[in-house]
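Amino acid chain
________________
===
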Amino acid sequence: MATWQEIENDAPEFAARFLRLFDVGKHKTMATLRRDGSPRISGTETQFKQGELWLGSMTKAVKAADLLRDGRMALHGPTTDPGEEGSGTWPGEAKLSGRAVEVTDPLVVKAVVGGEPGESHLFRVEIDSAVITRVEEAMLVIESWAPGRGVRVVRRR
């Protein structure tokens, strides 16, 4: 698992492109695991601050309950339709997976969200992979980063 800062240090160009794609819109899609192990999709907002990726949730939200029970999750950034570009290229989409860990330290909560613990849930995301998928010259390009491996690029026709 890695912090966002570790990705920026290890692969700065990849991290910069990831951020441009991931933050093209405020609203992200998050997958969590329900009590029975089936997936749940929820909307969420994220922020990159202090070298970490953070996400929040209202108290008593089902996605928060999912993360408190089992922190495994995936986030998908906003995307555009690949067909909109019309030139055989598409800037792509960014997604990541990892584990959300609740943070309740009052100093950290105040520094990240400006509130007090208990007003909502604050989670720090420990990242196990980050992926950019795009189209370049009619070829699917998948760039992935993982701790200890760095960036790998796969091209498919």
Q: What stands out?
A: The beta strands are 27-33, 39-49, 52-58, 72-76, 90-102, 120-136, 139-146, 150-156. DSSP finds four helices and eight strands in the chain. The longest helix spans residues 12-22.
